[in-house]
What does this fold into?
Amino acid sequence: MLDSADSIFDRLVNAAPPTAARAAFNTACVLGGSIAGLLAAQVLSDYTERVVIIERDEMGGPHCSRPGTPHAEQFHGLLPWTERWLKGFTDDVLNKGATISGTETTLTVMDGQRQALSHREYEIVCATRSLFESCARTSVLRLPNVS
Ligand SMILES: Cc1cc2nc3c(=O)[nH]c(=O)nc-3n(C[C@H](O)[C@H](O)[C@H](O)COP(=O)(O)OP(=O)(O)OC[C@H]3O[C@@H](n4cnc5c(N)ncnc54)[C@H](O)[C@@H]3O)c2cc1C
It folds into this structure.
């Protein structure tokens, strides 16, 4: 029987890094060093001896636009689960200018019309995408087996 979308979502939300993992592969190669690539590298680092991320853009600092991510300076909101994989990520982005949008302070308006609240039970960390990416990159590249 197929899992419902809700149960798949619950499983993803409750996923956590392994307490004890062993390297099942020698080298894993991740194509693209953006948010998804960085998080993939973080997860793979528990299961491989070495992770190599291949990215075609030159990487800059927290406010750097680059061709591969033209949306880098757009406002983004992240649900709080990144912290589970990248310890210290939330404090790091908050110290660099991100804000937390709590359930009491969030108002979504589209074309002047107030929208129904979503993600009510979660606080959302808000910043530009380039800031998120820069902090995630710093955290992931600290792992000794990721380059
Ligand atoms: C205006 C806007 C607002 C958004 N707001 C939100 C939000 O609030 N919250 C949210 O969660 N998401 C938001 N998103 C979506 C979010 O930005 C994307 O889901 C996210 O950027 C996808 O990340 P990614 O790492 O999968 O891919 P991308 O960010 O597209 O990264 C792909 C990477 O691969 C690299 N690459 C591509 N081709 C190659 C190649 N051949 N060789 C090597 N490297 C390569 C690129 O340079 C890039 O670094 C928003 C998107 C937009 C456009």
Summary: Residues 129-141 form the longest helix (13 residues). The first strand starts at residue 25 and ends at 31. Residues 5-141 form one domain. Residues 31-37, 54-57, 68-69, 71, 74, 76-78, 129 surround flavin-adenine dinucleotide (CB under 6 Å).
